[in-house]
Design goal:
The protein is an alpha+beta fold. It contains 6 helices and 14 strands. The termini are far apart.
Length: 321
């Protein structure tokens, strides 16, 4: 008989929307499902390696029953083939996630039925392609999602040429109080501008909150989720810029936060941003982030489900390398 345990992930910050942890175990499958009700996504953590039809059937059935729309998992390289066999598609990578090795994100829509379907792998490394160019003979054409991402990155790079990093104003980073963050998250959700509500991405992690200010009255709330043993940080910005002035200020804020993380010995960081947000892409590119993936229909901004560019940056090498 399968054993079930389900509970909301414990967190000391009262404002944070919970992520349900649902555990499932029987003779063939041992899984933890991290369910984000706001975005209707679920991250699968697999405690028993290897492809299994029972594993895939449970994950899909569970997601459909719970009204979820996107399933994803994060694994080491040697487990990628397992999830490809289960019908998932590789959507991105996080360099140095495990200090000396990369992590890979694979995704699957929850509504899929029947046998695994091959999906074109999302390009995760090259940023040099020209959107207007036709694919070379033998190459599959870009999907609409890929074209949107490429246009965003091309437009952001063009803007960066006119606003070099050295021209950015200095920003100040301070810890944010619970009450401040709770109020800011609620306001961003009401306005439809929230990219995140700072929900947990993983298990057994440390979550911190920051207020970043730039001269002229600009404020930006940010959060990091870290696993000390790996030296990586998941970086979240509450909302993206609306004006050119905010675009520049967001670049300054991201630079200051990066310096803070580097001083604390963080090896690598990664972030997600809507694939159609040129202004936010500008801030990441200005600060040395590179696109390492495209997570399909992964974010919910306002009432709209959006693809997410996976932005990654290696801040430093492990000290003993």
């Amino acid at each position: 008989m399968p054993a079930w345990i389900s509970h909301a992930q414990a967190n000391s910050h009262a404002h944070q929307l919970p992520v349900d942890e649902v555990f499932f175990q029987n003779d063939a499958v041992s899984l933890c499902m991290l369910v984000n009700r706001r975005t209707r996504t679920v991250r699968v953590i697999d405690f028993r390696a290897g492809p299994s039809t029972a594993k895939r059937a449970f994950v899909i059935t569970f997601a459909q029953r719970e009204g979820l729309e996107k399933i994803y998992t994060l694994v080491e390289r040697d487990e990628v083939s397992t999830w490809l066999k289960l019908g998932f598609a590789k959507e991105g990578s996080i360099p140095s996630f495990y200090k000396r090795s990369d992590a890979f994100l694979l995704g699957c829509p929850a509504c899929r039925r029947g046998p695994p379907v091959e999906r074109e792998e999302v390009p995760s490394q090259s940023e040099t392609r020209i959107v207007a160019a036709k694919p070379a003979t033998g190459q599959a054409p870009l999907t609409a999602s890929q074209e949107r991402m490429e246009r965003t990155i091309a437009a952001a790079k063009k803007w960066v040429k006119d606003v070099p990093v050295r021209s950015l104003s200095p920003a100040k980073v301070v810890p944010a109080a619970d009450a401040q963050v709770r109020k800011a998250v609620a306001a961003a959700l009401r306005s439809g501008r929230a990219i995140t509500a700072f929900e947990p991405f993983g298990r057994d992690v440390e979550r911190r909150f920051f207020l970043i200010t730039v001269r002229g009255g600009f404020e930006l709330y940010a959060s990091t989720e870290s696993q000390t043993c790996f030296g990586n940080v998941y970086l979240e910005l509450l909302q993206g810029p609306r004006t050119d002035a905010e675009r520049v200020a967001t670049g300054s804020a991201l630079a200051a936060l990066g310096e803070t993380l580097l001083s604390e010995g963080v090896v690598s960081c990664f972030a997600l941003a809507p694939s159609d947000d040129v202004a936010l892409a500008t801030a990441f590119i200005q600060n040395g982030f590179r696109r390492t993936g495209l997570l399909l229909e992964h974010l919910v901004v306002g009432d709209t489900r959006k693809d997410a560019i996976l932005w990654s940056r290696k801040l430093a090498n492990p000290s003993d390398e």
